[in-house]
Amino acid sequence: MGIIKKCQVCGKEFGASKDGQKTCSIKCRSEAHKKQVQLVCEQCGKEFSVPQSIAARSRFCSRECYWKAGGAGNNTPNSKRKALYGEVKGKYKTVYIGRDENNKPLYMRRSHFVWNQTHPDDPIQPGETIHHKDRDRSNDDPDNLEKMDYSSHMRHHANEITSEERSRRMKNYREQHPEALRKGEPKICPVCGIEFYRPPSAKAITCSYECMGKLRTMQSNLQPCVV
Length: 227
Fold this sequence. Notes:
Layout: E1 3-6, E2 13-16, H1 26-34, E3 36-40, E4 47-51, H2 63-68, H3 72-75, H4 81-85, E5 94-99, E6 105-109, H5 110-118, E7 128-132, E8 145-149, H6 150-160, H7 163-176, E9 186-188, E10 195-197, H8 209-222
Antiparallel strand pairs: 1-2, 3-4, 5-6, 7-8, 9-10
């Protein structure tokens, strides 16, 4: 017989085959889907109506309020993000945007999707990407996004990382992965004094191109001027 429950639509008692069953028949379940429930948006405070079947997981009145509140990373208390919001796992969060002529699903980076939704007059073009101002790729708040071309974006992040920061990251990686094979012998950079590794065939004597340029400048200044 199962679990004895009371139908939320007609009030009739029935034997539920599973714990989450709330209606006694297909007809009552259809009526429950059609029934609208009034809720209040947690982001803007606006009232909105949703079907009773999804009222338990509805918290925002629109996608804009959903993204402003932090997206699925902060608002989905379960693991059904792909079914609810069209997101898939990966390095970048993606959003389902439709299907192509071969009926294959099309996805777009969530940051690009948010930018196109909030800037309809300036959408992402080929060769352009989105920069996160706080360097957190999971924070797709519209105020945290900035459109840049690929080359400018790569130069921006390359200039942020100094040789000391790169060496610190490598040192932390080696401490966390002691089993990783390391080729070559340790060397000391003559410019900044940082310890670095290169393969046995490598002829580099500095830890980075930045230090190599400084070393060449120092060597050129020490050479006597021939008249």
